[in-house]
Amino acid sequence: MKLLKLVPDNTDIKFLRWRVPFYVVSLLLMAASLTLVFTKGLNLGVDFVGGQMIRVTFVQTPAAPVAELRESVGSLGYGEPIIQQFGKPNEVSIRMKLPEGSEANAGLADEMARNITAKIKSTHADARIDGVDSVSGKVSGELFKTGMQALIAAMVAISIYIWVRFEWQFGVGALFALVHDVTLTLGLFAVTQMEFDLNIVAALLTLIGYSLNDNIVVYDRIRENLKKYRRMPLPELLDLSVNETLSRTIVTSLSVLITLVALLLLGPNVIFGFTAAIALGIFVGTYSSIYMAAPILIWLRVTSASFVPTESEIDRQERLAREKS
Amino acid sequence: MLDFPRWKQLWLWAVTLVACFCALPSLFTVSGLDWPKALPAPVINLGLDLAGGSHILLEANPDQVRRQRLESMEEDVRSRLRQADPQIRIGEISSKDGSVSFMLADPAQVDAAREQLQTLTQGAGMTGQRDWDLEVRDGNRIVLTPTKAGIDQAITQAMDTATEVVRKRIDALGTREPTIIRQGAQRIVVQVPGLKDPAALKALLGKTAKLEFKLVDGTALPSDLQQGIAPPGSELVPYENPAQDGTVPLAVKRLGGIKGDRLTNAQQSFDQQTNAAIVNITFDQQGGAKFAKLTTENVGKPFAIILDGKVLSAPTIQEPIIGGTARISGNFTVESANQLAIALRSGALPVDLKVVEERTVGPDLGADSINKGVIAFGVGTLALMAFMLLTYGRFGFYTNAALIINTLMILGIMAGINTTLTLPGIAGFVLTIGAAVDANVLINERIREERARGRRVIQAVEMGYKEASRAIFDANITNIIAAVLMFLFGSGPVRGFAVVLMIGIATSVFTAVTLTRMWVAGYLRRERPADIVL
Known about the structure:
The complex is a heterodimer. By secondary structure, chain A is an alpha+beta fold. Chain A has two domains: 15-40 and 140-306, Multidrug efflux transporter AcrB transmembrane fold (Up-down Bundle), CATH 1.20.1640; 51-135, Alpha-Beta Plaits (2-Layer Sandwich), CATH 3.30.70. Helices cover 64% and strands 11% of the residues of chain A. Chain B is α+β, with helices and mostly antiparallel strands. Chain B folds into three domains: 6-49 and 362-527, Multidrug efflux transporter AcrB transmembrane fold (Up-down Bundle), CATH 1.20.1640; 64-147, Hypothetical Protein Ta0175, Chain: A, domain 2 (Alpha-Beta Complex), CATH 3.90.1070; 210-345, Gyrase A, domain 2, CATH 3.30.1360. Chain B has helices spanning 6-30, 48-51, 62-83, 110-118, 148-173, 198-206, 222-227, 285-297, 334-345, 363-416, 423-452, 457-489, 492-527; strands at residues 45-46, 53-60, 100-103, 123-124, 129-130, 132-137, 141-146, 179-183, 187-193, 211-215, 234-237, 250-253, 258-259, 263-270, 277-283, 303-307, 310-313, 325-332, 353-361, 420-421. In chain B, the strands form seven sheets. A four-stranded antiparallel beta sheet of chain B has the order 8-9-2-19. In chain B, strand 14 (263-270) and strand 15 form a beta hairpin. In chain B, helix 3 packs across helix 5, helix 10 packs across helix 11 (423-452) and helix 11 (423-452) runs parallel beside helix 13 (492-527). The longest helix of chain B is centred in the C-terminal third of the chain and has 54 residues, at 363-416. Chain B is elongated, with a radius of gyration of 34 Å. Chain B starts with 5 loop residues before the first helix and ends in a 7-residue tail after the last helix.
């Protein structure tokens, strides 16, 4: 039987020839993402800013009457609602600030939720209330803080591990690639104004996991080749390493994408944003381990000296080998 | 590398089978089959975001506990010194600035007072500290300040009691399998799966149910009441009197009332004459005696029934009530009377609890999510397996077998240690499946490479596993580091993700590396192929 081969043997693509333009583009994109995040802002969900969110599905209508809803909910006097479709066009989330004084009297928030759901149900008979989230400002502040702490702590600790296992240049490279991936994803959330909630933090963590996996595979091969080809110029060696792992990169990325596409098309709507973020992460992560994490090693001047045993070490090993035989 | 002695094989199979077996009850439940009752049945709990239900985070205000402690200390000091022999006379007690202080009428009694008050304080915590600091200032002023250990202990006790009360109230609603957990120093998490309407639950939990009976101060002038001035020795309590318009405060005497915490029962019932909803309460022996004394001494006077700082009603005492039972009327609906009865039966909350976070997922959405999730996961996995089979042939088959076992093992271990699967947990699941596939891809690609370099089958396989293991090891260690940190730093969803990730990494390495190596080794030993299709 002939097996499927997506990548021919012994490819020799000069990936790193384009490293400078790619770096410039990536840095520009990162700068743009950061600017967007700070100017336009993320569309933070109630998890992070507090407030109330009501999710509604219109069972028999193909598309939710967003404008109508905005008017009818707005007329209740609780302020202007933020209404967004998510997953399918007939599903919406309605977000409101918590009413004044609800920190002291929790009953007010309840009353608001009751009034809004009653209003929706009276005007739209097919409305199904799928969920009500209500988060006070205090709790949302804590959620934001712990979420960010987890993210940053994980990224820093991973970099330290890579530094210990490889060399400091690799640690810097991995950290930079992770920052790159997270920044671009945040930029995407700022552009699309998709809702950013705690589940998306979990998606970001997944993305970091994949990106890192990819990174380490490439780095591992670079380390191996540094030991093997001591006189090869670094750019050439990096190209060789990327080419050697290319088949694996393609097969793995495809495998994960297959499952993600199934989740995107057939999976529950609640995880749509979340799956989309991970799928994006696969592309960004693969790209960053080739174009962000690898070239940085050239600029940080990695040499094979870090990985090749010193003379005395070679002597010791030879002695051990002799004793064994 | 490819050497697997029999005992090792048996051991690996045993681990695999036990873990997979634990997954079966959960799979049976999802597919609607009955799991034999005679067998142990560890089942994965589905998080509320998947199964539907309510998550409510309640928070207590520790200042309230501090204030209450000062108030009760004030009362204790007064009664203890009055009952002392000889009586110790004191001036006005003030409880400002977080401590209780008062002057002694006779400075010579300082030591006697100190001795009496010492008995009111107790040890707190492990350090042998007392819960109150007792100080004498300027020769005749005594100051009692609560220590930090004392306050912490009081808050802990209050939260323990509050958790117990919350549990009793939720049980009284008859909901199934609620989870009630203390979180941190002053919070309680309540999770009730499959609840349709959390409003009733929240109304019940928000009720402190502190019941008091106090005498009405008849000397208060209506004009003073309007201005919010209470006669000396009395306090004003808001009263929504149905006979009057709006809320007019009622003056009640601060001392000499009784608390409604000594109840043995409370039932919703109906007034025989007016048919209005009422609540019947039964005191315990001590409470009944106190109530009898109060009513006997004050026949013909009105007294106020106060719930959570609001007057429910203010009936006149017609005759002494000595049977130890009483009825509370006060503009109830049947539902609100029933709620009050439940709240009173379960006891008062020692602190007010406020809902600071609430998440409710409709049960329809939950069921929908699970079905779609299972289908999507099934289709995705089948497609992935087909892809593996096409790409790696026999080795792809081993990869697939490892993948199935991996999935079963993750589910089995989650069921075994009784964790909850949430939406972010599914993300962790997807990540570990990805990592497991990647491990096999790495190995298979490496074997291909080694073959292309001209190595013989056995050496190529051996090298493949050996060389790929390094990258697999590093990748998984970094993921473990990330998972542990997320678990330590993160909250709720992030933790759910981290738990699955930790379990998944362990099983991925076990199935994708160890098990497949055993299978490949078995194949090579049995068939001794001169060439492999890869």
